[in-house]
C-alpha cells in the first residue's frame, strides 16, 4: 500500500491531493493541517476513504517531529511520498512591484521573512522530520510544491513584476530541493520541486468567482498569454493534481533535484 503524506492539506491543491489519491483504495493518505478538526469534518462529509488528518504546522518543527511518529504507526514505519504543499502566499504584497516598497521597507522584510519561514524553512523542517521514514521506503519520493513564478523566464516574458516575497521564497525552495537531492542521493531519495500550473483555488465556488477575483485573474491570464497564448484561465485543482501525480510517478533518480512543471517539463503553462 503506497503511502502519501501531504503537508498543508486543508484546502485548495492540498485537499485535492487527498481527494484524488483516495480514489485508489490501495493508497494510505495522511494529510497534515494546522486545524485538523475542520479538515477531518470535511473528509468525513466527502466520505474520502483511507485518509487520516493529523496536526502539522510548517512553521513549528516540533509539530512535524511529533506527527512523524504518529504517521509511522499508521504506515508501518515508512513513508513513500512526502508532498510539501502548504505555503504562505503573502496576499498583502501580491500586487506590489519592487518600487512600491519605497517607505515600506519593514513590510517588505516582514513579508519576506514570513514567506521564507513557511515556504523554505517549513520545507526543510518537514523533510528533516520525515527523513527516517523516507529512508525505510522502497519508493522514497519528496515533492516540494513550487511555482512557475520562481522562473525568471516566465517573469520576464509575462512581465510580472509583482508578488516578490512569494516568488523569491519559491526560488529559494527550489535551491533547497537541489541541495537535498545531493545530500540524500546515496540513500536513494528522489527530490522534486514541482509547479502545479495556474490553478483555480482562490474561489470557493469555481463557477461563481467573485467579481474582484475574476478581474484579477483575467489580468493575470492576459499576462500569462504573453508566455503561452493558449492559456484560457486557471485549470481546476483536479486537473493539476492528476498531472502532478503523473510527474511524481515518472520521476527518476537522474532527475532528482530538478524544478519541473505539472507538464513534466520546464514549460510552466
Ligand atoms: N493556485 C495556483 O495557481 C498555484 C500556482 C503555483 C503554485 N501554487 C502552490 O501550490 C500550493 C498550494 O496552493 P493553493 O493554491 O492550493 O493555496 P491555498 O488554497 O491558499 O492553500 C494554502 C494551503 O497552505 C496551508 N498552509 C499555510 N501555512 C501553513 C503552515 N504554516 N503549515 C501548514 N499548512 C499551511 C493552508 O492551510 P490553512 O488552511 O491552515 O491556512 C492551505 O492548506 C502552494 O505551495 C502554492 O504556492 C499554487
Automatic annotation (TrEMBL):
Pfam family, one: adh_short
Domain of life per record: Eukaryota
InterPro entries for the chain: NAD(P)-bd_dom_sf, SDR_enzymes, SDR_fam
Matching Gene3D superfamilies: NAD(P)-binding Rossmann-like Domain (3.40.50.720)
Recorded GO MF terms: oxidoreductase activity, acting on the CH-OH group of donors, NAD or NADP as acceptor
Protein name: NAD(P)-binding protein
Species in which this protein is naturally found: Trematosphaeria pertusa
Amino acid at each position: 500500500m503506497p503511502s502519501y503524506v501531504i503537508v498543508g492539506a486543508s484546502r485548495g491543491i492540498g485537499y485535492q491531493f487527498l481527494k484524488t489519491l483516495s480514489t485508489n483504495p490501495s493508497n494510505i493518505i495522511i494529510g497534515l493541517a494546522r486545524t485538523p478538526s475542520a479538515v477531518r469534518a470535511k473528509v468525513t462529509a466527502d466520505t474520502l476513504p483511507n485518509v487520516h488528518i493529523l496536526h502539522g504546522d510548517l512553521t513549528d518543527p516540533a509539530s512535524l517531529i511529533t506527527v512523524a511518529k504518529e504517521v509511522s504507526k499508521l504506515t508501518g514505519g515508512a513513508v513513500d511520498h512526502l508532498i510539501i504543499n502548504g505555503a504562505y502566499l503573502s496576499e498583502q504584497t501580491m500586487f506590489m512591484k519592487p518600487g512600491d516598497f519605497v517607505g515600506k521597507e519593514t513590510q517588505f522584510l516582514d513579508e519576506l521573512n514570513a514567506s521564507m519561514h513557511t515556504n523554505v524553512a517549513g520545507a526543510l523542517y518537514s523533510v528533516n522530520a520525515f527523513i527516517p521514514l523516507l529512508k525505510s521506503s522502497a519508493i522514497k519520493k519528496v515533492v516540494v510544491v513550487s511555482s512557475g513564478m520562481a522562473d525568471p523566464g516566465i517573469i520576464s516574458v509575462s512581465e510580472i513584476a509583482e508578488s516578490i516575497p512569494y516568488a523569491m521564497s519559491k526560488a529559494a525552495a527550489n535551491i533547497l530541493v537541489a541541495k537535498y537531492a545531493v545530500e540524500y542521493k546515496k540513500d536513494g531519495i528522489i527530490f522534486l520541486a514541482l509547479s502545479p500550473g495556474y490553478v483555480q483555488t482562490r474561489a470557493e465556488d469555481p463557477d461563481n468567482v467573485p467579481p474582484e477575483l475574476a478581474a484579477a485573474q483575467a489580468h493575470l491570464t492576459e499576462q500569462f498569454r504573453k508566455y503561452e497564448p493558449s492559456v484560457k484561465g486557471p485549470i481546476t485543482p483536479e486537473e493539476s493534481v492528476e498531472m502532478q501525480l503523473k510527474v511524481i510517478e515518472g520521476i527518476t533518480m537522474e532527475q532528482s533535484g530538478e524544478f519541473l512543471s505539472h507538464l513534466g517539463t520546464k514549460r510552466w503553462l
